[in-house]
UniProtKB/TrEMBL annotation, chain A:
This is FAD/NAD(P)-binding domain-containing protein. The chain crosses the membrane at residues 27-48, 54-71. Pfam families: Pyr_redox_2. The keyword Transmembrane helix applies. Keywords: Membrane, Transmembrane, Transmembrane helix. It comes from the Bacteria. Residues 164-440 form the FAD/NAD(P)-binding domain. InterPro entries: FAD/NAD-bd_sf, FAD/NAD-binding_dom, Helical_ferredxn. One of its GO terms (molecular function) is iron-sulfur cluster binding.
From TrEMBL, chain B:
InterPro entries: 4Fe4S_Fe-S-bd, 4Fe4S_Fe_S_CS, Electron_Trans/Redox. It comes from the Bacteria. This is 4Fe-4S ferredoxin-type domain-containing protein. Keywords: 4Fe-4S, Electron transport, Iron, Iron-sulfur, Membrane, Metal-binding, Transmembrane, Transmembrane helix, Transport. Residues 211-240, 241-264 form the 4Fe-4S ferredoxin-type domain. The keyword 4Fe-4S applies. The chain crosses the membrane at residues 68-95, 116-133, 168-185. The keyword Transmembrane applies. GO terms for molecular function: 4 iron, 4 sulfur cluster binding; metal ion binding. Pfam families: Fer4, Fer4_5. GO terms for cellular component: plasma membrane.
Length: 523, 264
């Protein structure tokens, strides 16, 4: 069902109970509403014995049925969200595009920024919860994003003079900007770097996310008519008070870009993971020789894999076990394939020239604890620290509340300052792109509600949840498709993508593996 | 056997007095009417061949007697199978199963509302009937309207002896009936979960009944499919024998990992 149809059916239903439902193809729902409404009216008419106060409850119930029928005509049949939908941090409904892909139809979806990028780099929490796990392996939800023929449904924008300033053109900032622009607001995005994209542009290496893909996606967002000002650092080029004067609302989405320090003697000599990634993306080469990377997150793995491609000999030192790493297991395995050695349960304690001192740890109750007298020494040419990042928001320290780790405290997207919203890594700590996109989209909704002064209940009423008809497909026995990878010898020589894109036909048949949980599992 | 077949058979097993329609003679008044069904069917339904358990309880209580035999009968069933009667026999449950399949806008009710049925049980069926000496629950019972009130008045077998009796109370019952239809279309087994006093009686036995659902926690992958398909909206893997479980075994049949099974 296309999006316009539900408006017409709502209007029909206002005048003819059940009519709108029949118009939109839900015959039985229409009949049921018409019978409960007109049926009881007819019944009362047949047995009419005169007016009495028992008529009032009847009147109330008829009004309730009439209102519910209008609501139903607008909202349509609603599905219970399946696990893939419930676990998507960006609020995407994977089963819907999978279903369209399996039916080989173009998918009308409401606009999701960074859709293809998510298809390449998202850690796919949806797949970890997919019901298909019960039979064999989860559906390749993430990769299938690349095969969907999307038709973005653009809502008709109201013109609005309210202006919103967004600090930071990362996934959160740009998603927010796109979503607000589509709702008709004036949006200006300020970015400290010379180019938009944020963390994916700076720190996701070329072999995981080609710049061309990122650029296409960012250009699509900017082409909506968003004003982008790069090279503007708030606090240096422009003050926060100026921003508060200029815009009706501002949103801080600067991410967490300041690398955490280790605080060990000799730390002046080390490099930080995020700096290496940023400079490598700009084309710099790093030829250190023997490199040790400290950390177990995605940045640590990415930096190690980048350095391997420059011909370095890389080892990752991590204070817990390899399986405890917050990085994605697949990325970790790919790193090992590329010849990176992971040395678990060690902690650096000092650096003297090329001599790096470590101490061993052990896990006690889930936390690493130092083992006494287990110091050892490793000769390395360079140590790279990638143990995480924190936000760099000194420019608004006195404006709003932050927690002790430096992240902004928010409630429903809004910080303690009524005109400042915040989202993305600056709120949640370094998380995935999907989290950032999800934050952006949710904040856009909050800002919209706030600026147009809509109470939450009415915002809910106006939301059309499932504007389409889906089909339950027969169960297929097929196993999960293999995603082709380039072999490790050739891929460590260059920065071309490691994962190759499967053929459209393969993707369609993979999409057929989806069980369409909301249709298959219902009473 | 498919559940809907059993439900259909159960409906006709209890409601097959077609002579009433053929001979136009009102409802059955033979000896069977002294016994009650284990499930919900209105005593005044023209097709019914036995009486309603709740009606019997209220009948005894309004005579200031304790309905030992009904309690014993329901208790005996409850001890063995808990609320399974609701899932396999009750025609009203069947009606709700059918109507919920209509593709309309649905909503979920909060779980605490499910306790309202105990209020209906103790407030109206027990205390109400005892104090007013009348079947108090029958005054609002939408099942009565569905099976007896509305068809009887339309059909009018007693040649206009019913219609003049219609007053505010009949209008009120029609309004409850319309609301009942709307709610059972749009929320899962609304009547069973929120209103049904008979379900409330059985649900007291669910925890202790001999028949129990078991979940193999090692197999379960918490996909939540069981909640999606459960007519009562129960998260089976968390509370397998929750008071509301009607033992329809849909979760047992459809769990993709076969983690739910029937145990003793
Ligand atoms: S089987 Fe399909 S609908 Fe179910 S969780 Fe997986 S992707 Fe989602
Ligand atoms: S359907 Fe089965 S596997 Fe899924 S959550 Fe329920 S019990 Fe667990
Ligand atoms: S828990 Fe299972 S048996 Fe009980 S009502 Fe739900 S689906 Fe039926």
């Amino acid at each position: 069902m296309s999006d316009g149809k539900n408006k017409i059916s709502t209007i029909i239903s206002v005048f003819l109970v059940g009519g709108g439902q029949i118009y939109s193809g839900r015959i039985w729902a229409g009949i049921a509403f018409a019978l409960t409404f007109y049926g009881t009216i007819a019944l009362i008419k047949i047995i009419w014995t005169g007016f009495n106060f028992g008529f009032y409850p009847l009147l109330v119930v008829w009004i309730i049925i009439w209102l519910y029928n209008i609501l139903d005509a607008y909202k349509g049949y609603c599905y219970e969200p399946p696990p893939c939908e419930r676990n998507c941090p960006a609020g995407i409904r994977p089963w819907i595009y999978l279903n369209y892909l399996a039916q080989d139809k173009p998918a009308p979806l409401s606009y999701i920024p960074f859709f293809e990028i998510l298809g390449m780099v998202c850690p796919a929490p949806c797949e970890d919860h997919c019901t298909r796990r019960a039979y064999d392996d989860p559906v390749a939800i993430k990769h299938l994003k690349l095969g969907v023929k999307k038709v973005w449904i653009r809502p008709k924008a109201r013109k609005s003079n309210a202006s919103v300033g967004i600090v930071g053109a990362g996934p959160c900032g740009l998603s927010l900007a796109a979503s607000l622009k589509l709702r008709g607001y004036q949006v200006t995005v300020m970015e400290r770097e010379g180019y938009p994209g944020g963390m994916p542009a700076i720190a996701i290496p070329e072999f995981r996310l080609p710049t061309s893909v990122l650029k296409k996606e960012v250009d699509e967002i900017l082409s909506l008519g968003i004003e982008l000002r790069t090279g503007v650092e708030v606090g240096r080029d422009i003050s926060i008070d100026e921003l508060l004067d200029r815009f009706d609302l501002i949103t801080i989405a600067v991410g967490a870009m300041k690398p955490l320090r280790l605080d060990i003697p000799g730390e002046e000599r080390v490099c930080y993971g995020i700096d290496i990634l940023r400079r490598a993306k700009k084309g710099e080469r790093f030829e250190f020789g023997r490199v040790g990377v400290i950390g177990g997150g995605n940045t640590a793995i990415d930096v190690a894999r980048t350095l391997v491609r420059f011909g370095n000999e890389v080892k990752i030192y991590y204070r817990r076990r390899a399986e405890d790493m917050p990085a994605e297991p697949e990325d970790r395995e790919e790193a090992v394939e590329e010849g990176i050695e992971i040395i678990p349960l060690v902690l650096p304690i000092g650096i003297e020239g090329k001599r790096h001192h470590f101490i061993r740890t052990r896990i006690v109750d889930g936390r690493p604890e130092i083992v006494e007298n287990s110091e050892f020494e490793v000769e390395l040419d360079q140590l790279v620290i990638a143990i995480g990042q924190e936000p760099d928001i000194d420019f608004l320290k006195d404006k709003l509340l932050t927690d002790q780790r430096g992240f902004i405290v928010v409630k429903n997207g809004r910080s303690s300052h009524p005109k400042i919203y915040a989202g993305g890594d600056v709120v949640a700590g370094p998380k995935t792109i999907a989290h950032a996109v999800g934050h952006g989209l949710r904040i856009a909704q909050r800002i919209d509600q706030n600026l147009r002064k809509i109470p939450g209940f009415f915002a809910w009423l106006g939301k059309r949840e499932y504007p389409f008809e889906l089909k339950l497909l027969p169960f297929t026995e097929r196993r999960r498709m293999m995603i082709p990878h380039r072999n490790s010898e050739s891929r460590i020589k260059d920065f071309e993508p490691v994962e190759l894109i499967p053929s459209p036909d393969e993707m369609k048949r993979e999409a057929e593996r989806c069980l369409v949980c909301p249709l298959r599992y219902r009473p | 056997m498919r559940r809907w077949i059993i439900q259909t058979i159960a409906f006709f097993a209890g409601n097959h007095y077609f002579q009433s329609i053929i001979r136009n003679e009102g409802f059955y008044q033979g000896p069977l009417k002294r016994f009650c069904f284990p499930y919900f069917t209105c005593y005044s339904c023209p097709l019914a061949v036995a009486s309603c358990p709740l009606g019997s309880i209220q009948h005894f209580l309004s005579l200031q007697l304790i309905p030992f035999y009904v309690i014993g009968f329901l208790g005996l069933i409850g001890v063995f199978i808990g609320r399974m009667v609701c899932g396999y026999l009750c025609p009203i449950g069947f009606l709700q199963d059918i109507l919920y399949r209509i593709k309309s806008f649905k909503f979920k009710i909060p779980n605490w509302l499910a306790n309202l049925k105990y209020v209906f049980l103790f407030g109206l069926v027990v205390i109400g009937a005892y104090l007013t000496a009348e079947p108090a629950f029958c005054k609002i019972c939408p099942v009565g309207s569905t099976q007896a009130g509305i068809p009887l008045v339309l059909w009018d077998p007693f040649q206009s002896s019913l219609r003049p009796l219609i007053g505010w109370h009949y209008y009120f019952k029609v309004s409850i009936f319309a609301l009942f239809l709307l709610l059972i279309i749009s929320s899962r087994r609304f009547f069973c979960r929120v209103m049904c006093p008979l379900g409330a009686i059985y649900s007291l036995f669910n925890r202790f009944s001999i028949l129990q659902l078991r979940v193999n926690k090692d197999k379960c992958i918490e996909c939540n499919s069981c909640e999606l398909l459960c007519p009562m909206g129960i998260k089976v893997y968390q509370q397998p024998n929750q008071a509301d479980c009607i033992r329809c075994f849909e979760c047992v049949k459809k769990c993709p990992t076969k983690a739910v099974y029937v145990g003793w």
